[in-house]
UniProtKB/TrEMBL annotation:
This is Replication restart protein PriA. Belongs to the helicase family. PriA subfamily. GO terms for biological process: DNA recombination; DNA replication initiation; DNA replication, synthesis of primer; double-strand break repair. Residues 581-740 form the Helicase C-terminal domain. Its cofactor is Zn(2+). Binds 2 zinc ions per subunit.
Length: 842
């Protein structure tokens, strides 16, 4: 793979050759598309550059594509069309990225166009829209109908109109597509594609004094001249108060943000307009980076404890002979400080650094800490940012503005070309796995491949590593460094199991709260300390049911019950988004006894307000954090002490650090432990340990964790109390080996979908039989209906394939699976079936 910009011609002797480009198009077709390179583009087109190409029918849409290969071999299957336009003088996609796209396409069994589509921020893709304009050569009005005449009259008033604009003009009575088709046949209009880049730089409008007044003498003359115009003189004086030209005349060229003068209520805006008109001031625009570069790294010095320094030194020593190292550090051990030390060393050597976090909620707190150290050297990349903000980070990596980027899983696609270190924090987190759409990749694994190509090092960090990662470390394939002391003399919390079955018998439960938890919350309030309450289910109640006939409100599109959301006063499907009004009576029997069953974070929040009316309570879940800055606002309020209790889902378990949290309450632990999945025990240990770790992070004060459970005797709960990760690992790894689950095998899940259940089952059975014939029944399990067997009106069947890591050619198996899938998709009777491959499924 060539990593440098590549020009088509190396000498004048080749100028007469016709060249072609193999392009990656953002469509789900498993191949590249060959286009002809116009002669005017031959000297500027480079591998990795974006281009605009026509696609589909002759007057079809246009797409943004990326150049993957340049050559002089025309396609044999079709006539190559011409590239329309080159968008980049210098490639925005590196050679390493193109290699990554190819690998992901093959490994995750998806078209390379799907990889490119998710890798590039939408602001770097081109939007096309059909436009219609009047044909100036048209001179036959007698051919037009009355309605066409009206439409053409409107078109003459504008340079061009879009289809949407024409539909608004035509109203309900006009069939715009038919009208346009008729006008085209009469040669009355011209239809063309208007293409525009979605990325729009942020422009700042500024004003500055005319250069003639930069000299002191001329400026005094101006002020004297304006003495008779006091309002204009005041505008100039106010400008000078912001831009002290008297001390440094060169400051004038930077100018002043015009909004500062516009928003000054004491100034006459008409006077400013007059000064601009008369040339005393001049207006201009500059491109303003959305990530302010006026906050250079401060002099904050990270002081490592003895344990942290030892961990950092061990990591560096292991990097001498290992490319991947696992830092296994308990919650609150100060892994972030170790990361900062590693980042500083990597940047000091001139390398780029990527720091991955599993959730945006985590970035809010950690980013502030990192910015104090790295300032404007650091870029931030996640999905809550706008298209334009993400494009600026992308271009900032290309230009070298950002040597260090912190982001979520999609940050692995940024155009790094000199990576020295990748940190994957909380590497066990399921958020690193993308489920929809394709590619269904795991950012941790992609980061390892990216590091391999760029000869970078990878540091994985977690208090509760995934069993697969810990196994690789114990086998010696990864380095292993352990950090088992909490930072600053803080101690691990005291974990107490509350037997809610016993409390129910004694009738001491109040709704979802045990008496032990309510008493602990009250004592915490008296001490003016904060509490976190964890329930991994949002909404008010998981479902509504009739007490008389047991009717349950279910989604019309999916085989799930509808969740009741009290604030919105609606029933909502968390799979497809379907919403319904809350029924007052049972639609089956007419009973008025329709009740909510179970509880979510919204219900807990309401009950807490009843029990603690004087407390300040906030909820943090998907419903309360949809806005761009919602995470940041909630965390800031809690961190500043404005909030007494924080109720939340799993997003509150991930790395948040609050000094004043001394109590954590956990609801519904049994549901996590008994979830029907081979990873359920591991996941429950990770989640409960992580949320427990939010308590008692201040030195000199031990936190308390109350876990409400119906079965306090469960062995997994004892391991959580004792923080016995190694005990969990030894039990689980033996079971994984006995039943050939990861890390001893690779899993590929195939999900067959169709709106007709019989057809879906037929396709799944056929695929299972064909795979079993080649791979054997021990490796192919299914087909079976998943827990939710219908989503968005499609019936689902899962097929699970287990492939031994060391005995089977995985690449050949995937190729065979893809052939069998293609056979089914090309069968006339099964063409509407869709089959989704999920490699390394979770």
């Amino acid at each position: 793979m060539e990593n440098q910009p590549y020009s088509l011609f190396s000498s004048a002797e080749t100028e007469e050759l016709t060249f072609f480009a193999d392009l990656i198009l953002p469509i789900p077709v498993p191949r590249l598309f060959t286009y002809r390179v116009p002669r005017g583009m031959t000297d500027i087109l480079k591998i990795g550059a974006r281009v605009i190409v026509p696609f589909g029918k002759r007057n079809g849409r246009v797409l943004t594509a990326v150049v993957a290969r340049l050559h002089n071999s025309p396609p044999t299957q079709y006539q190559a069309r011409y590239i329309s336009e080159v968008l980049d003088e210098y490639p925005l996609v590196t050679g390493y990225q193109l290699e990554l796209f190819r690998w992901m396409s093959e490994y995750y069994m998806c078209p390379i166009g799907d990889v490119m589509n998710i890798a590039l921020p939408s602001g770097l893709k081109i939007s096309s829209q059909s436009k219609v304009q009047f044909n100036p050569d048209f001179d036959y009005p007698e051919l037009l109908t009355e309605f066409e005449t009206v439409l053409l009259t409107e078109l003459k008033k504008h340079p061009a109109l879009s289809y949407d604009e024409l539909e608004r003009l035509a109203g309900e009575g006009g069939n715009v597509p038919a009208l346009i088709k008729s006008l085209i046949s009469k040669k009355a209009v011209i239809v063309f594609e208007e293409v525009k880049e979605k990325y729009i730089p942020k422009m700042i409008r500024k004003v500055r004094l005319n250069r003639n007044y930069e000299e002191r003498e001329q400026l005094l003359v101006l002020l004297q001249r304006l003495e008779k115009l006091p309002k204009q003189q005041e505008v100039v004086m106010r400008y000078l108060s912001h831009i002290p030209m008297q001390r440094d005349p060169t400051l004038n060229q930077k100018g002043l943000d015009k909004t500062i003068l516009n928003q000054d209520e004491e100034l006459s805006q008409s006077s400013l307009t007059t000064l601009l008109k008369n040339g005393v001031f001049e207006a201009f625009e500059i491109i303003q980076p959305r990530f302010s570069d006026d906050s250079p790294a401060s002099s904050v010095e990270i002081k490592l404890t003895e344990a942290q320094r030892a961990a950092s030194q061990q990591i560096m020593a292991q990097f001498e002979h290992q490319n991947i190292v696992l830092l296994h550090g308990i919650t609150g051990s100060g892994k972030t400080e170790v990361y900062i030390d590693m980042i500083q060393q990597a940047i000091g050597s001139g390398s780029q650094v990527l720091y991955l976090l599993p959730e945006i909620a985590l970035t809010t707190q950690i980013v502030v800490r990192l910015q104090r150290v790295f300032g404007d050297k650091m870029g931030i990349y996640h999905s809550k940012f706008s298209d334009n903000e993400r494009v600026e980070v992308w271009k900032g990596v290309v230009s070298g503005q950002f040597q260090f980027v912190v982001g979520v899983r999609s940050a692995v696609f940024l155009p790094f070309d000199n990576l020295g270190l990748i940190i994957v924090d909380e590497e066990h987190e399921t958020s690193y796995k993308q489920h929809d759409p394709a590619p269904r990749y795991h950012a941790r694994d992609v980061a390892m491949m990216l590091a391999h190509w760029q000869q970078a090092k990878v540091l994985l960090g977690s208090a509760t590593p995934s069993l697969e990662t810990y196994y690789q470390a114990k086998q010696g394939r990864y380095g292993l460094v352990e950090l088992f002391t909490r930072f600053g003399e803080a101690t691990l919390p005291n974990i107490i199991l509350v037997d809610i079955k016993q409390e129910k018998k004694q009738k001491t439960m109040k709704n979802e709260f045990s008496s032990a938890l309510l008493n602990a919350l009250e004592m915490n309030m008296e001490r003016k300390e904060q509490s976190i309450l964890f329930q991994n289910r949002r909404g008010y109640s998981p479902y509504m049911q009739c007490e008389d006939c047991e009717w349950t409100a279910e989604c019309s599109n999916c085989a799930v019950s509808l969740t009741y959301h009290q604030r919105a006063a609606e029933l909502r499907c968390h799979y497809c988004g379907h919403k319904e009004d809350v029924p007052r009576i049972c639609p089956t029997c007419g009973s008025t006894k329709v009740r909510t069953i179970g509880f979510g974070t919204e219900k807990l929040e309401d009950q807490l307000q009843i029990y603690f009316p004087n407390s300040r309570i906030l909820r943090m879940d998907l419903d309360t954090t949809r806005a761009k800055n919602a995470y940041q606002q909630i965390i800031q309020e809690f961190e500043s002490g404005q909030i007494d209790m924080l109720v939340g889902t799993q997003m509150i378990t991930k790395g948040l650090d609050f000094d004043n949290v001394s109590l954590v309450g956990i609801f519904d632990a049994d549901r996590l432990i008994r979830f029907p999945d081979f990873r359920a025990t591991e996941r429950a240990f990770q989640m409960l340990t992580q949320v427990s770790g939010r308590a008692g992070r201040r030195a000199g004060r031990q936190g308390t964790v109350l876990i409400q459970t119906n079965s306090p005797q469960q062995s997994i709960l004892q391991k959580i109390i004792e923080n016995d990760y190694k005990g969990l690992y030894e039990e689980e790894i033996q079971e994984r080996q006995d039943f050939n689950y990861p890390p001893f095998s690779r899993l590929i899940k195939l999900t067959v979908r169709h709106t007709d259940k019989a057809i879906s089952h037929q396709a799944a059975e056929r695929l299972t039989n064909e795979l079993t014939d080649m791979l054997g029944s021990s490796r192919v399990l299914g087909p079976e209906e998943p827990l939710v067997e219908r989503i968005r009106n499609q019936f689902l069947y899962d097929i699970l394939i287990k492939i031994e890591r060391d005995k089977v050619n995985v690449k050949a198996v995937k190729a065979y699976i893809q052939e069998r899938i293609n056979d089914i998709l090309t069968d006339k009777g099964l063409r509407q079936v869709s089959i989704v491959a999920d490699v390394d499924c979770l």
